[in-house]
Amino acid sequence: DIVLTQSPGTLSLSPGERATLSCRASQSVGINQLAWYQQKPGQAPRLLIYGASSRATGIPDRFSGSWTGTDFTLTISRLEPEDFAVYYCQQYQTFGQGTKVDIK
Amino acid sequence: QLQLQESGPGLVKPSETLSLKCSVIGDSISSGPYYWGWIRQPPGKGLEWIGSIDQSGSTYYNPSLKSRVSISVDTSKNQFSLTLSSVTAADTAVYYCARHVVVVLLLDIPAGRFDPWGQGTLVTVSS
């Protein structure tokens, strides 16, 4: 089974700063079907990025995804107050354990 | 705009069967090449895929739950359902339904993204 390891566990930043979240896959499956989700307390996850780098409908362009090999990155260029949340990556049937972005 | 809505009991006794339904609102469950899936999240923990069903009724389950899970679809009601048998406290979680946009099947596991999600329903397993 694929294991997705997200780092860091928590990222403490201020509004306006850049956030870089990492998701490392234990193996390559030959296709980049990695997705990123945002989850706020008491809410369902929301799709942000799919296919490793395509933004979902309605997602602001401050969110971007990239990858190199089995290392995937979600970048939030300038944090807005509403971006403080938990972020999960997902590939295949596996989810990462999440990265919490909180206010410094 | 497509919306999904979970429904079902919020409390299930240990060893009994958990049953949930997901109503698809705003589009036909039969439209498009979509699958329909269930994901759960224990309190304070991460996400776990339970399984998905495709347009033809073929099902795909998480191997760790396969012996206890069943997913079915009722096109006449625009709903799909989840049953999980022999539940224990470890099955206490928020259960989400979602549209599963599958790109490819790899080793009989659907690969794709979940969008959109229902708001989730908390199911507690307790006597």
Describe how the helices and strands are arranged:
The complex is a heterodimer of chains A (104) and B (127).
Chain A: E1 4-7, E2 10-13, E3 19-25, E4 34-39, E5 46-50, E6 54-55, E7 63-68, E8 71-76, E9 86-91, E10 94-95, E11 99-103
Parallel strand pairs in A: 2-11
Antiparallel strand pairs in A: 1-3, 3-8, 4-5, 4-9, 5-6, 7-8, 9-10, 9-11
Chain B: E1 3-7, E2 11-12, E3 18-25, E4 35-41, E5 48-53, E6 59-61, E7 69-74, E8 79-84, E9 93-106, E10 109-117, E11 121-125
Parallel strand pairs in B: 2-11
Antiparallel strand pairs in B: 1-3, 3-8, 4-5, 4-9, 5-6, 7-8, 9-10, 9-11
Structural write-up:
With 104 residues, chain A is an all-beta fold. Chain A contains no helices and eleven strands. Chain A has strands at residues 4-7, 10-13, 19-25, 34-39, 46-50, 54-55, 63-68, 71-76, 86-91, 94-95, 99-103. The model of chain A has no long low-confidence stretch (mean pLDDT 95). By secondary structure, chain B is mainly β. Chain B has strands at residues 3-7, 11-12, 18-25, 35-41, 48-53, 59-61, 69-74, 79-84, 93-106, 109-117, 121-125. In chain B, strand 7 and strand 8 form a beta hairpin. Chains A and B meet through strand 5, strand 9 and strand 10 of A and strand 9 and strand 10 of B.
Key traits:
heterodimer; A: 104 residues; mainly beta; 7-stranded mixed sheet; 4-stranded antiparallel sheet; 11 strands; B: 127 residues; 56% strand
Indicate the multimeric state: heterodimer
Specify the structural class of chain B: mainly beta
Helix and strand sequence of chain B = EEEEEEEEEEE
Question: Could you describe the largest sheet of chain B, including whether it forms a barrel?
Answer: 7 strands, mixed
Indicate the proportion of strand residues of chain B.
over 45%
Task: Give me the Rg of chain B, rounded.
Answer: 14 Å
Sheet/helix structural class of chain A: mainly beta
**Alpha-carbon distance between the two ends of chain A:** 36 Å
Shape of chain B: globular
